[in-house]
Here is the input.
Amino acid sequence: MRLNDLPSAEAVIAEKLKDPAFRAEWERTAVARAVALRVIEYRAQHGISQTELARRLGMKQPAVARLEAGEHNPSFETLSRLSSTLGIEFHIAVTPKGVAL
Here is the structure.
C-alpha cells in the first residue's frame, strides 16, 4: 500500500463520527482537544519540553502530558492558570447544545 492510498485523518474521523458512541465521546472531548492543540502549539513555538512547561505552570510533567492528550476536559482553574501564565486566551461558549471553545 502506498502512502497516497491511505485515507486522510479527516476521512477517518468522518467515518468514525457515523458511530453514535464515537460521536458522543468526540463531542464530549471537544474542549479538551482544543486546549491540547493550543498547549502543544505553545510548547512548539517556544521550544520547551513538557517538563519545562510544567515548571512554569507550577504543575508536574504528567499533568501537562494529560492536558496534551486531550482526553479529559480541563478545569476552569487549569484554564485560568494556562491563560495567566502563558498569555493564552480561551473563549468558552456554554449553550443549550453544549460547551465550545
The domain at 8-100 is CATH 1.10.260.40 (434 Repressor (Amino-terminal Domain)). The mean pLDDT is 91. The chain is about 60% helix and 5% strand. The longest helix spans residues 30-46.
